[in-house]
């Protein structure tokens, strides 16, 4: 039989979620190991562009017993500052992490023990926490293969700076937080940018004297749990509102970029040769994004009025630009487009988990991260419990809760065995 190093808990993933769990496991004195495929905080350290910064203010960085202590709580840490913050957190407790260790398979024995196979040895565990996040496989549609190979295609995970892209124009596909920020990154460098606008909502950055996230926090928006949400399925699948923390933070109005020369289209629907097709949904997508934007402003207005808060007024929202027509096809050669930058997200990869914890669509099933398979957990996913679950804001609460469940199970089994 293969030798296995036994641990009470194996945590798979050495990002902020996995190490937050490790922190509380250490506090409880539970023997465990964290297995990280690359190096700790790899995604923050490696998979980010040069000008990357947080979208949420620094005050929302609340790792276990290690909240942001810098002198700019309302600012937005840039890439190096984020990794410095994370590394400093790890140094507070010296986690038992094995880096460059890829987990290749997890199975559950009939007796309830978990077997964890990895590139650096095999383990057995009473309990397992999956903290690998949902950013494993970059999404690129199948029809991308039909685009002329002379046009460079890159995914946002590989983008670092505008100079990577060949001379000529770039089509950025996707208007989630990454897509709009990469579009702006190139636009500010004077590059010719085209943008395929998807259905992502947008949000104000500052409104009536404060960052909108400050207002939403005070309004209890971030405390709403998925169990309390009126439309849980919509919450889990909804794209994040786009804005940016760049240069002190500002909102992103795609209509404004259109007035500055960025060419806007609807959602990409197909590619063939040097032709790219779009759905005629540009105006709808812009209007829907603005509806979300105005809805947040209105909610803040109502909160201010209800609590009689003294706050400066704001001018009414106005649409700066409207498309004259819906363009449904372009010729890259005529438009000078030499590259396409995909920013339409990622899919998780759980093919290495051979444990009955998934639904028919391959999505993990849990309640606050606790699976029906005894001793199996997930953490670090959006809306695990609240909006902040996949972010710095909610990771402390989520990790503390999971470790409470893990500790209770460990103590119960210890008592039963004695």
UniProtKB/TrEMBL annotation:
Q: Which residues form a coiled coil?
A: none
- Which NCBIfam families does UniProt cross-reference here? MSMEG_0569_nitr (TIGR04046)
| Protein name per its UniProtKB record | Putative oxidoreductase CzcO
| Entry's EC annotation | 1.-.-.-
- Tell me the domain of life: Bacteria
Q: Does the keyword Plastid apply?
A: no
Record organism:
Shimia marina
The gene name on file is czcO_1
- A single MF term (Gene Ontology): flavin adenine dinucleotide binding
* Record keywords: Oxidoreductase
């Amino acid at each position: 039989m293969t030798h296995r190093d036994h641990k009470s808990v194996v945590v798979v993933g050495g990002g902020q979620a996995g190490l937050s769990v490790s922190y509380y496991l250490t506090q409880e004195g539970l023997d465990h190991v964290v297995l990280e495929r690359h190096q700790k905080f790899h995604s923050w350290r490696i998979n980010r562009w040069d000008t990357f910064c947080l979208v949420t203010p620094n005050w929302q960085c609340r790792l276990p017993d290690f909240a942001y202590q810098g002198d700019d709580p309302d600012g937005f840490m840039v890439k190096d500052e984020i990794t410095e913050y994370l590394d400093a957190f790890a140094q507070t407790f010296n986690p038992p992490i094995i880096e460059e260790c890829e987990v290749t398979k997890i199975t559950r024995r009939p007796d309830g023990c978990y077997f964890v196979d990895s590139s650096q040895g095999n383990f057995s565990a009473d309990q397992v926490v999956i903290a690998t996040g949902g950013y494993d496989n970059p999404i690129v549609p199948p029809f991308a293969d039909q685009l002329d190979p002379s046009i460079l295609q890159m995914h946002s995970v590989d983008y670092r700076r505008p100079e990577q892209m060949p001379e000529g124009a770039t089509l950025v596909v996707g208007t989630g937080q990454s897509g709009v920020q990469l579009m702006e990154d190139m636009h500010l460098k004077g590059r010719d940018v085209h943008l395929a606008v998807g259905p992502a909502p947008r949000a104000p950055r500052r409104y009536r004297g404060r960052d909108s996230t400050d207002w939403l926090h005070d309004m209890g928006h971030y405390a709403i749990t998925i169990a309390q949400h009126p439309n849980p399925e919509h919450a889990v699948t909804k794209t994040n509102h786009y804005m940016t923390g760049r240069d002190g933070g500002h909102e992103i109005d795609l209509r404004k970029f259109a007035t500055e020369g960025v060419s806007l289209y609807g959602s990409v629907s197909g590619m063939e040769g040097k032709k790219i097709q779009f759905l005629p949904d540009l105006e709808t997508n812009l209007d829907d994004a603005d509806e979300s934007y105005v809805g947040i402003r209105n909610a803040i207005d109502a909160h201010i009025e209800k609590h009689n808060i003294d706050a400066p007024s704001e001018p009414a929202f106005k649409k700066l630009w409207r498309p004259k027509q819906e363009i449904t096809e372009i010729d890259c050669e005529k438009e000078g487009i030499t590259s396409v930058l995909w920013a339409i997200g990622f899919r998780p990869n759980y093919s290495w988990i051979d444990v009955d914890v998934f639904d028919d669509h391959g999505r993990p099933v849990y309640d606050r991260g606790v699976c029906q398979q005894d001793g199996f957990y997930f953490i670090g996913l959006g809306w695990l419990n609240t909006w902040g679950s996949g972010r710095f804001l909610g990771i402390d609460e989520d990790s503390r809760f999971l470790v409470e469940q893990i500790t209770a199970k460990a103590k119960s089994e210890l008592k039963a065995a004695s």
